[in-house]
Every structure is written in C-alpha cells, then in structure tokens.
Design a protein that fits this description.
six-stranded parallel β-sheet; three-stranded antiparallel β-sheet; about 35% helix; alpha/beta; about 280 residues; binds zinc ion; Rossmann fold
C-alpha cells in the first residue's frame, strides 16, 4: 500500500480484537451502510473547519447567511465562486483541488464492491468517496465539483453548463431555474432528493458504520439514532471518544484509514484475529 499513515499509528491487540468483533457483526448484518464526516478526510490533508488548525479558526468563519446572500445576488455569488477572494474560500478550494482519497475512502469503496456496504452517506463535499470508487453515495452537503439547479435539483458536471462570466448566473437548460454550486451553504436546506434517499437507506439498514464524525448535527444525527431505535447496530470509528461513543454498539478508537483498512480485511475474510478466525 502507498500512503504511509501520517500519524504513524500502531494497531494495539485490544483494538484489533475489537475490529474483528465489529467485522463479525457486519458479516451477520442484513444490510450495512456507512455515514462519514470531516474526520475521515483529515488523512487526505483536508483540515477540519473548526478547532486547532481548522480553516475557519485560521481565516475566520464564512458568512452564516451564505444561502440568503446567494439568493439576494446570484451573479455576485457566482463571481466569487469563479475567483474566490475570501482567504478561507481560496484556501479551501486549493486544499480540495489537491486532496486525494486515503485508505479509509478506499476501504469503504472496497466494502461496497464485495457487497458488504450498501451505501455511504457523507457530510463531506470533497468528492473523495467518489474518487475512491464508491458508487452508492449520498452527499448531504453536496459536492464541491458539481453544480445544481435550485428548481429541479438536477446535478451538472462543471463542463455540462456554459458559465459565461458576462451572463451570470447560469440557468438550468431543463427548467430555466437558477444554477448554484452543489455545496450546501449555511442556511440552505439539504437537497430534498438526497435527504429522502438517506431516510430510505437508513430504514433499510440494520448496521451503520460511522466514521470521522460524531454525528451530532442534523440531519446526520438522526441516522445512527434511527438504526439503534429499530434494533440495529452502530459501529463508530473515531480517533477520540465522542458523544456518539456513549450510545454506539461498538467503538473502534483509531484513525479512519488504519481502522477501516483492517476492518475490510476481516470482513473480506483474509485476516485472522489474535483470538482465532472470525466467523
Ligand atoms: Zn432545473
């Protein structure tokens, strides 16, 4: 494997046994899905927004009324998108452009490929799950690469719509609606098509892998709760304890890359735990 672990993490025997246990639970589950957040992309060089080293800690928070501003003056919002001037926006767009999927993204894509993960819901806009090969992907906060029609919610690749700097904002070729970046702004509703599919997937699953997020913000916060309420299990993968740890069925305390890679090996059946073969 390429990419050495940035944290030089060594798997303890205790954590390894816990991962083996989680893998056993996943193999016994009817339908497994995953929920991911910013913590999973830290190993891809994308800093969190808040906290030490966070983009907003460094550059100041972006406007909390971003969606309202967009609606008030879409042309100006588009000019800002085409050539970001705010330092945080500039830093974010450069960081996103340079980021590559890490072992955690790849492990989730592989779990899907071998039929052990039905879909991934992510709060991340960084496109890294898609780049790693995950196909059933629900990006609740959108995808920074894509554009979206605010009327009919159709998504567009950047080159699908001509963006003329002299005639902003661009309009949807299907319905004439206002076209915006797909990333969900502050104050903007979660796109209804994605939210509906999230609830469908959550109600069909009986096992949820939660990685790189404490899932305390709506709507993500509702998903693990719903899985537990209906008798399913929640497996948390976070380096530090979170609020979720108190309710999760199993908590795997380690970095997403190393833990998910090991979990994949157990689920796929090509690793053995200290205590013997996982069934
Ligand atoms: Zn449209």
């Amino acid at each position: 494997m390429a990419s050495p672990d940035p944290q030089d993490f060594t798997l303890s025997a205790e954590l390894d046994a816990e991962i083996a246990r989680a893998a056993g639970a996943m193999r016994n589950a009817r339908r497994v899905m995953a929920l991911t957040g910013a913590g999973l992309s830290v190993e891809s060089g994308i800093p969190p927004f808040r906290g030490p080293g966070g983009l907003w800690t460094k550059y100041g928070e972006p406007p909390m009324d971003g969606y309202e501003r967009f609606l008030r003056d879409p042309a100006q919002a588009w000019r800002e998108r085409l050539s970001p001037s705010a330092p945080w926006a500039k830093a974010l767009s450069e960081t996103l452009a340079a980021a590559k999927p890490n072992a955690g993204h790849r492990a989730l894509a592989e779990l899907e490929r071998i039929g052990r993960c039905a879909c991934v819901i992510t709060q991340n806009v960084d496109d890294l799950h898609g780049q790693a090969g995950t196909r059933e992907l629900l990006e609740i906060h959108g995808n920074h690469r894509l554009l979206r029609c605010l009327e009919c919610v159709r998504r567009f690749e950047p080159d699908e719509i001509p963006v003329d700097p002299e005639a902003l904002p661009p309009r949807c070729p299907d319905c004439g609606g206002l076209v915006k970046g797909d990333t969900v702004h502050f104050g903007e509703p979660i796109p209804p098509d994605v939210l509906r599919r999230c609830y469908e997937e959550v109600s069909a699953a009986d096992c949820m892998l939660v990685a790189g997020t404490s899932a305390t913000v709506f709507p993500a916060a509702a998903f693990p709760v719903e899985i537990l309420r209906s008798g399913g299990i929640v497996i948390e993968v976070n380096p530090e304890p979170t609020e979720l740890s108190e309710v999760a069925t199993l908590t795997l305390a380690g970095p997403g890359g190393a833990v998910l890679e090991r979990l994949l090996r157990y689920v796929a059946g090509d690793a053995e735990s200290e205590e013997g073969r996982v069934s």
